Fold this protein.
Amino acid sequence: MKEWAENPTTLALLNLVKNELKQIVNTPTVDCLIYGEPNKTHENIVELDARANSFAILELALEGDWEYFEEEEDEE
């Protein structure tokens, strides 16, 4: 996994993901506003948050942190 995370292709993709995540996080919430359409405004805000979450998880995976994807073992 460490070798994969240090691969130049993975590092290039990680850089792109980090830049996209930075743009998403820096997007002002007011950009999601659609005057007179509260439902569409809410959908835009939820979509922005979902994109940020997805890119954050992808960033962790590309960095070699796969803890998010591990299944929890049931303790009996």
